[in-house]
Amino acid sequence: MSYVDSIGVNEKKFNRRDFLKAAALTAASTSVATSDNTLINKLSTKEVSKDIDEGQWITAACWHNCGGRCVNKALVKEGIVIRQKTDDTHSDSIDFPQQRGCLRGRSQRKQVFGADRLKYPMKRKHWKPGGGDKNLRGQDEWERISWDEAFNYISDELKKTKKESGNNSILISAGWNSAITDISRTLGLFGGYTECWNTNSFGSWSLTPATVGFMQLGVWDQTVNDRFDLRNCDTIVMISMNPAWSAMGSSTLNYLQAKKAGAQFIAIDPMYNETHNLLEAKWLPTRPSTDTALLLGVAHSLLVMDDPIHQPLIDWDFLSKCTIGFDADHMPDNMKKEDNFKDYVLGTYDKQPKNAKWASDICGVNENEIKQLALTIGKNNKVAILCGMASARTRNSDNLPQLIMTIGAMTGHMGKSGHMTGSTMHCTSGNGGPALVKAGSKGLPAILNPIDDTINANELWNAILDGKYTFTGQGSFASPTQYSKGELRNINIKVIYHAASALLQTNDGMARGIEAHKKVDLVVAHGQFLTTNAKYADIVLPIITPWEQFGGFLGGNLIHSGNREMIIHYSQVTNPLYEAKSEQWIAKELAKKLGISEKDVYPFDEKQQYFNELTTIQVVNDDGKTYSPLVTITEEDIKELGVIGKTQKGKISYKKFKENGVYQVERFQGDNFGYIAYEKFRKNPDAYPLTTQTGKLEICSPTLAQKVNRMGFSTIKAIPTYINVKDGYVDTFENWQKKKKGKYPFQLITPHYLRRSHSVFDNIKWLQEAWKNPIFINAYDAKIKNLQDGDTVLVENEYGKVLRNALVTECLMPGVVALPHGAWSDVDPKTGIDKGGADNTLSGQFATGQGVSGYNSCIVNISKFNDQLINDVKKPQRIVL
Ligand SMILES: Nc1nc2c(c(=O)[nH]1)N[C@H]1C(S)=C(S)[C@@H](COP(=O)(O)OP(=O)(O)OC[C@H]3O[C@@H](n4cnc5c(=O)[nH]c(N)nc54)[C@H](O)[C@@H]3O)O[C@H]1N2
Ligand SMILES: Nc1nc2c(c(=O)[nH]1)N[C@H]1C(S)=C(S)[C@@H](COP(=O)(O)OP(=O)(O)OC[C@H]3O[C@@H](n4cnc5c(=O)[nH]c(N)nc54)[C@H](O)[C@@H]3O)O[C@H]1N2
Ligand code: SF4
Ligand SMILES: [Mo]
What we know:
Blueprint: H1 16-31, H2 39-42, H3 45-50, E1 56-60, E2 72-77, E3 80-86, H4 103-106, H5 108-112, E4 122-124, E5 142-144, H6 147-165, E6 170-173, H7 182-189, E7 195-197, H8 208-212, H9 227-230, E8 235-239, H10 243-246, H11 251-260, E9 264-269, H12 274-279, E10 282-285, H13 291-305, H14 316-322, E11 323-324, H15 341-346, H16 356-363, H17 367-376, E12 383-387, H18 400-410, E13 420-423, E14 437-438, E15 454-456, H19 457-466, E16 468-471, E17 487-490, E18 495-498, H20 503-506, H21 510-517, E19 522-527, H22 532-535, E20 539-542, E21 551-555, E22 566-571, H23 583-593, H24 598-601, H25 606-615, E23 618-620, E24 627-629, E25 631-632, H26 635-641, E26 652-653, H27 654-660, E27 662-664, H28 679-683, E28 697-698, H29 702-711, E29 733-735, E30 740-741, E31 746-749, H30 765-770, E32 775-778, H31 779-784, E33 792-796, E34 801-809, E35 816-818, E36 859-864
Parallel strand pairs: 6-18, 7-15, 8-9, 8-12, 9-10, 11-28, 12-13, 18-19, 19-20, 25-26, 31-35, 32-34
Antiparallel strand pairs: 1-2, 2-3, 4-5, 4-20, 14-23, 16-17, 21-22, 22-27, 23-24, 29-30, 31-36, 32-35, 33-34, 33-36
Helix pairs in contact: 7-23, 13-16, 13-17, 13-18, 16-17, 19-21
The protein binds ligand MGD (2 copies), iron/sulfur cluster and molybdenum atom.
Molybdenum atom binds at residues 200-201.
């Protein structure tokens, strides 16, 4: 350790015991600051160290969108956190593992009590009603204001905007969908707001799978079999997967058990990552955004090498019973026979067979390896074809999930033990099946947004700058009203209200985003730190973290949850710090200023919402089919909580649940909680049809093509075909035929990174020190570009420029560079270069297909930069006021 953030002590001199004291002091210096700023001086180091083994262990929330849900506990003494630990609620075993935290969760006290927490409402010095000096956004000084002043400024500007330009000039910015924030309730009652929507994690898994029968929306955790069945596979193909970095908790353990049971792993990925290394996977280095070409090559190889007697590779019976569109004899009624998949792959009509050689030219995987892959995944082998969604967070990838499904269907790896095909990522990685513990509900009535304007994230910043966008329906990607016929609309955004997420940072086209922020009249941001959203705002409102809330739950549901087997109950660790407030409080106070009754926004308080959620958590019964309430509630509990409710009988008492901080279903081999995806469908497709139009897996889906094409961003066919990807491999060439490289000869990917959960935790010095944030470059490319390990590298393209230090490696294929996702942007106003290395400084703002964010379709150049870059850990924290 060489850095202690908030007390400025050099830890190098410290031993472990001293270090604990320092951590205690760090917490002390901030957690007590509101009530008594001098307390830090009164606490002698000796006094604190004497007491480090005393205090109360409290289950502390780790609420980030990281794909894990782990038990983190904080040892609290007199309101000060002096230690953290992880799950010790039961003894650890492979089949019933503890829910252990990662390095980020364990350093969370550095986040909650960081000296860089936002302490008071703030206003940008040169902001005035109407915008003031707008260009100073991102560089201006900050002034402390009272909550009342903040609400007056915001409500006046909202009223003026509503009157002069209409409610659709107010944008609520949120990562997934604007309608789910607390402020959306207030502004819904105020007459509405413009929404934005984003495909984020899902990429083209947003619309495609649900339409073709591969994965129903809301049940993305049910496309592959459960973790015990992984151990029955002989071969596990991993397409764009890195659970060791991006699916914490026990996901990687699941794959490791499959390896121990004898499975071999094959990695289809531009990077030989930590997961592949651990599982000793065979690597097929694949260029980003070219998976469609590779898999078409596999389909071709399967077709030409299949021999039902001597070399059976294709499961013709499954194809015929369970799919539609594979060949001319199985086409949907409204399609021409020659438009079938098989003839496209063989090149019957277009005279271009999609053979291994053709595929190899595009994807980079050796021709023979493609053929070998086809042999390995043949129908008689026990195979899992698993994929994460990174390969679909690419442009023009709308039919990639359909193609993965097609390969799975051709080889029959669906609906049987030891066979599976599907996506498995984030909290569901390596463990498919319905939740065994289902989250409860706060029971709040929904407040509808009377305005239907909804902007796709890929057009959002341009829409603000250019005044027009493509309307394709209201709501998020999961909403049934999205994906309608594209309609060009005018829009005049005057207010950006950042009410959740880190959109300026995590959406593509950050440079355009910053410009857009400089155009509008008012930017409001809720925040715990001076994040990128807050940095470019005019009014910043400090919010509490879940450590400062009464309590709540994590996991047990679908998105942002833990694995299917558990739910966490977290409790309050500290009183709200400084003047930070809850978002519900902000929503209510703003409502009052806007003349809306707070009771209309929230008919009951946060404690009652907590109770409603607690009592509606459901847990599976021993039969593996039915569910019952999880928690027993007594009259005494109700009285103590001061809520309205009924007693109920569950599997665990309220007190015990709160004390343990977690409920986990105990599992063992052969229990009733196993899961085989598509089992019933495979056995009897007529009795258990899918929810597609034909009831089958649609290898040809006119519905998908129609839905995507009518949006108007770019077009696809009803069957999976190869489409040239904007900002993909082919675009790295000036002349593809002559193979002459262009101005941006490298492809860039942006893997999710251990130092952070997206942008969260990027400000933590411990993590900055443990995990540098380099640009990964292949050794061959480094040599060509005269780059050494550690050199400062300028990474640039038509959208922006970033600086990072080189990490030269053989674990990335040549021609590809990797910039870890989520670093906080740090643009030098003089040069416009981002010294923070934010990934989205380099991504473009444009929509393709179903409105997919194309984070992994990006082309750049790299070159040596002469100035040295200050190491992230040596940069000062962003401490304001
Ligand atoms: N280039 C590139 N971009 C990507 C990706 C990629 O792979 N490459 N991945 C994409 C994916 S998969 C995703 S899911 C998105 C994630 O995009 P975001 O959801 O925007 O990412 P986070 O950094 O998790 O943002 C959470 C923000 O909320 C703040 N916060 C924490 N608690 C609270 C709270 O209680 N209230 C409020 N209002 N704020 C709070 C945090 O400080 C943080 O700023 O990023 C996407 N962006
Ligand atoms: N530590 C940490 N964990 C996280 C997150 C985080 O920010 N930090 N974010 C969470 C969230 S919200 C999500 S959605 C998940 C995402 O988790 P993942 O989908 O696993 O995300 P990535 O790390 O972007 O990509 C995984 C692998 O895909 C490869 N890849 C990239 N592009 C392509 C391509 O075009 N084709 C192929 N075949 N491979 C490709 C990368 O090299 C990488 O090895 O992670 C979750 N977990
Ligand atoms: S994996 Fe996520 S939930 Fe678990 S400790 Fe790490 S940051 Fe927290
Ligand atoms: Mo995500």
